[in-house]
Design goal:
By secondary structure, chain A is mostly beta strands. Helix content of chain A is 0%, strand content 59%. The relative contact order of chain A is 0.34. By secondary structure, chain B is an all-beta fold. The chains are: A mainly beta, B mainly beta.
Chain lengths: 110, 115
């Protein structure tokens, strides 16, 4: 089955700096790659996603890139703010089957 | 996106008992999913629940321990049976929605503590 690896497991950045989280996947059949943000005690919230026919997608301060050849995708957060502090999960999807990464705990230091 | 609610939000149960968790969606959805999230961990899929058919369980999860009902297109229940402390976790339902029908949206979760 699909295997998704996510790095780093923890990340601390100064407010205003950029944060990058990287994921790799193993199954070339994966065609949909969502990113979720989970604040403490809350549900995972979809923040951005990308499909396999697109190389990059941006939404305000958040962007995701996908390299199908290398089987990796990344989340980029620019101009980080304290409210960006949370755990971020990547996922790779084959059909409706989601395979989640292990999560990255992001701390933005004011 | 769909609006998803779960009941109860949290519960404390005794070893050997069972807990049934309800998941309600504000629109009709074909596919619903049940996940487990242990403290500080990622999301692990327990099973996929389609209306009108038996749930499909992932490796390591069995129907006797995690029976699921899906009586209609807006509702599902997950029962965690014969509870042990190892079942202490957060249980989340999700639904497949969105334009492509493959985006998953999560309920608020049920925090279960087994004593």
């Amino acid at each position: 089955g699909e295997n998704v690896e996510q790095h780093p497991s923890t990340l601390s950045v100064q407010e205003g700096d950029s944060a990058v989280i990287k994921c790799t996947y193993s199954d070339s059949a994966s065609n949909y790659f969502p990113w979720y943000k989970q604040e403490l005690g809350k549900r995972p919230q979809l923040i951005i996603d990308i499909r396999s026919n697109v190389g990059e997608k941006k939404d305000q301060r958040i962007a995701v890139t996908l390299n199908k050849t290398a089987k990796h995708f990344s989340l980029h957060i620019t101009e980080t703010q304290p409210e960006d502090s949370a755990v971020y999960f990547c996922a790779a999807s084959i059909g409706n089957q989601f395979y989640f990464g292990t999560g990255t705990s992001l701390t933005v230091i004011p | 996106s769909a609006v998803i609610s779960q009941k109860p939000s949290r519960d404390i149960c005794q070893r050997g008992t069972s807990l049934t968790i309800q998941c309600q969606v504000d629109s009709q959805v074909t596919m619903m999913f049940w996940y487990r999230q242990q403290p500080g961990q990622s999301l692990t899929l327990i099973a996929t629940a389609n209306q009108g058919s038996e749930a499909t369980y992932e490796s390591g999860f069995v129907i006797d321990k995690f029976p699921i009902s899906r009586p209609n297109l807006t509702f599902s229940t997950l029962t965690v049976s014969n509870l042990s402390p190892e079942d202490s976790s957060i249980y989340l339902c999700s639904v497949a929605a969105g334009g492509g029908g493959d985006t998953q949206y999560f309920g608020p979760g049920t925090r279960l503590t087994v004593l």
